[in-house]
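Protein 1 of 2
SEQ + STRUCT:
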Amino acid sequence: MTAIVQLTEVTRSYGSPPVTALAGVTLTIDTGEFVAIEGASGSGKSTLLNIMGTLDRPSSGSVAIAGVPTTELTDRALSGLRSRVIGFVFQQFHLREGATARDNVADGLLYTGAPRAERRERADAALRRVGLAHRIDHRPHQLSGGERQRVAIARAVIDDPPLLLADEPTGNLDSRSSESIVDLLHELHAGGTSVVVITHDAQLAAQLPRQIRISDGTLVSDSHNRVAA
């Protein structure tokens, strides 16, 4: 099976003197997997997300996303790879307050140059996909937290990226809304999307097919036993 994410001996340090956020991480995530990466605050999980999402570059080691080695890519080429391959969902929904759900989701296609009418039509389809057909014309302040996160997910998947990276997607939600978001992620995975959830919540991680734990910048356990010794 082709790897959607391949990290080999990845390190990431910041500052001077350097502080190590990732220490020799080797990790393979295959196409079609649904993975939880769990760790406490300061464990390195956010840095790992940024490396997997090509939002940051490693200090050393190699990264390949969907079979594309990223080490030598220019910033512009990395942006192109992200736009084709990766959708992002964050704990903070990052929605435009004055815009409808439709227009917030349509923003996910701005980089494509598609006409506004096409962007809005596809946004409507994405909102239907996440169960928000009845909220298309609502603005964020008119939506619950769970609904706002669904809008953010619809924006992330509007162009059908093969990889979805979700950073604490239930962190700002009540338990009922959290369950609905996890169910939605399962539906997206069943539809063929590779999903990686970054979380500090061990209970959430336990619901996913593969659980990886990170501590002090090192992978310390993997339910699929793929952590390098």
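Protein 2 of 2
SEQ + STRUCT:
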Amino acid sequence: MNADSVARYLQQHPEFFEQHPDLLAVINVPNPHSGRAISLQERQLALLREKHRAIEIKLAEMVRRAQENDAIGDKLQTWTRQLLLAQDAQALAGAVIDGLKAVFSVPQAALRLWGVREAHQAMPEAAPVEVEAIRLANGMSRPYCGPRAHPQVARWLPDPPNARSMALLALRKGADPDAFGLIVLGSADIERFTSDMGTAYLERIAETSSAALSRLVE
């Protein structure tokens, strides 16, 4: 018999050590940490402790993420409430951007809308937008997150050189493939918006902003 045969036999006959309990006390295996020989029972106990520690670490990570998600959910609710309380177009546009900066602690944020109704065309957010920016927004199927890019929209931020990472959120009416606006978020922290980060909450922010601001465009 070879080692694989022994391993298979023990897996197929879990009652083996019940029938030969004396072996548990005399079989010694190396301790992976100290190098000294320990009994099979001690080795099993050490394995159980290691598994227990691994489970504790995973549980702590799950609790941490749940707490973070709860905190983000509370912030999203606070920001949404501010949008609902906005009285006019100018207040609404300000609630979107000022709320993102204040509630979500985003250092820089900017908003541009196009196709704005005549009554709202004097808003700063309705300033002329380059064709490249509109094409960029139309081509986005999900928020962009990553290093500073797209200079045609990065310059909308108050301090573009200090926006080392950015998030771009296209605004749409429902399933309309064409966007009517774009939100730009910037941070000096290169790790704030990364290409591998989850975008579920950013997508919710984009959907809520789109629903609120759609009344301002044709």
